[in-house]
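ingest -> validate -> predict -> emit
validate: passed (alphabet ok, no gaps, 207 aa)
predict: started
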Amino acid sequence: MQYGLPDLPSADDAVRQKLLAEATEHGWPALYERLSQIDPVSAQRINSNDRQRIQRALEIYELTGRPASEHKPSSQQVIPYDIIKIGLWPADRSILHARIAQRLEQMFEQGFIQEVERLHARRELHDMLPAMRAVGYRQVIDYLNGEVDYDTMRERCIYSTRQLAKRQLTWLRHDSNVNWFDTEDVDFQEKVLDFLRKTTSVDGYML
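emit:
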């Protein structure tokens, strides 16, 4: 959002169905190889197992005739403000893992499995839609389809969420402008406020 968003085409169901058919016939590695040929920049950014992003990159190429990496945001979209980036995370990774497991249990208690079951029953929401392949959803769908038992589904949900968190942290750490604070520091909130006091100057406003 900081640098604007490229003007990309909306999802096209016909193109997506065509790509899914190709993946079924030739396998996703073949589609990733195709992406590497037509858009090596995007292929380098996308994990070879990330079916959703592979499909989207190929879809953009099919619809526009141009690689997704060539679609740049308009300069008019760039936010005309100085931005301070603050990252909050527990430096002890085990704390993050425990919170992920705790959050998953809360989701189950609040009816997440039943929610996925209702969505799964709708014919237009097939299992290969990006929304139905999101972390948590695809693991519960496997459980509802009888492919895994409850405990396996739960462990896969936790593992997939951990992997997602790891990728997010890795991506954020590439941004040297992010200022990190450990949420386990007893006074981390005061440290954040102190940092903002030293780096911001807003007339008539006191942190």
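The two ends are 25 Å apart (CA to CA).
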